[in-house]
Amino acid sequence: MVGCPQLIGLSKAMETNTNVTQKISEYEREPVPETKTKNAKSFWGLFCSEHVAGTELLIGPLFVIHGVAAFDLLIGLVIGNVLAVLSWRYLTVPIAVKYRLTLYMQLEKIAGRNLVIIYNLTNGLLWCFIAGAMVSVSASAVSALFYITPPDLNAVLPDNIWMVFIVLAVGGVISIIAVRGYNTISKFANNAAPWMVVMFIAMGISTLPHLNIHSLSDFWEKAETVIWNGHNQAGFVKFTIWHVIFFSWFGNMAWHIGMGDLTIFRYAKKSNYGFAPISGMFLGHYVAWLCAGMLYAVQLQANPTNTTVSPGPMALSAMGISGILLVLISGWTTANPIIYRAGLAFQGINSNWPRTRLTLFAGGIASVIGIFPALSMKFLSVSALYGLLLMPIGSVIFADHYLMKRLGLESFYAEKNNIKFYLPPALAWILTLGICLWMNLYYDVQIFFLGLPGWFIAATIYLTLSIYFQRKFKKR
Amino acid sequence: MKLSWILNTVGFLALVLILIVSVLHAAGVVSFEYYTTMLLICTIIWFSRTLISRLE
User: Strands (DSSP E) along A48-205, which ranges?
Assistant: First the structure.
């Protein structure tokens, strides 16, 4: 979740909120000038380093736990990742390049300042959950050095007091660094990114002898019978190719169809820069996920009762101390900017609140959340929920840009009419989530499949309510 | 300029070496101990290169 050196300014701008970050970032409330746009190489580097991260060490094994078959995974990931890239290219980037505004500014123009505050609060809290998972990933590396037994796959509460102390200590260190040295760690993370990519690949290669794979034909046989053999663990829903496609497509829902990356791509010269996420999708969300899954298969093969997902011990057994460093650094470099962003998102509620304390507060929440092993063990659902909760806002932005004028309505309505809290976007957000919850509870639609219908529902509600509200205001 | 070119080359070679040693280990040519030691050395080279370039 960090950027390449050229885009450190961009990374900072991601956590922009209207008043707060004027001191530390650029063009929060105005379009990025043409002269300040970045070249394509910067975006390819940024997406590569952002998407090869600590989370991949959780996601890869969880596919194995969910009993996905080899063919379904290898093909499903290609389809899902291509769809994700196309979503960035054709939904997010054209809007980013046209207005060159941050997501927050765009949302403020459509929905008013007060909805941006609520969005910031939601975003900040969700980031604490993601950072909590990363803290637990890094803590698993430290725990492996002390031979602490990792939590059970179905554990919800922590069952080892030493593990609790380690998570809190690691979370505390990460939070303090997030407060004091964001730039240094950003630079460190950028430098570590190529090493992390190579180490993920090396990790996959290192598992081959353990899995008795000596040729390409061996690989396919073992992939089908040992690694992704289609047997899901008790308590984990069986994954089909559809689950894989939808998870890999919507794993980053908040950033593409949720429009989170408007803030990044406002620096793009052309819409074609929207193809840059290919680097992150295929190195991080393909190669790294497969390698992490193979590492987990080695663990299962050694001891079929050891079903826990604890990246530290797995990496130690496969790569020694370098494996521990990989887990520690990938978790740390991901958690650090997320905690920083969460602090800034909270500061967006009241710009007078000190950022340092809010960052520590966010880090504290993330550390406490990281104590609970259920967060890591259910990370696929957590990340799907994260995207789902923010997705309706992206749908509103899309509808406002592409469809309002066609329906004879005004876009950027809140700005033009000086409204602080415009109801249609807010209702579209809340009602969409309500309908998704209803579909989940009463029709058993799994969380991975709610993003697509939810996106259309949000757009429909927003447009319908806009017709009603704008006509009502006109009559007045 | 010259130093940064050297550091980049050394860093790149360290990454290539990680991949080569991994393949050799997978093929059973080198032992696990040799493999993990080489990984650690290449990792140290990579991050030292970063440190030196920053000091420079």
Answer: none
Fold type of domain A5-378: Hydantoin permease (1.10.4160)
Task: Tell me what the pLDDT averaged over chain A comes to.
Answer: 85
> What is the length of chain A?
476
State whether B35 and A206 contact (CB < 8 Å). Answer: yes
Residue B24 domain boundaries: 2-55
Chunked in runs of 10, what are the mean pLDDT values of chain B (56 residues)?
Answer: 81 93 90 92 88 70
pLDDT at A53: 80
Supply the ipTM of this predicted assembly.
0.94
Domain count, chain B: 1
Distance CA A179, CA A135 (A): 16
Region label for A212, one of left (φ > 0), alpha (ψ between -120 and 50) or beta (otherwise): left
List chain A residues with CB under 8 Å of B13: none
What pTM does this model have? Answer: 0.86
Residue B35's closest chain A neighbor by CA? A319
Which residues of chain A fall short of a pLDDT of 50?
A: 1-24
Cα–Cα distance list, A100 to A37, A410, B28 (Å):
10, 19, 54
Q: Is A67 left (phi over 0), alpha (psi -120 to 50) or beta?
A: left
Kindly tell me the sign of the dihedral angle through the C-alpha atoms of A467, A100, A260, A108: negative
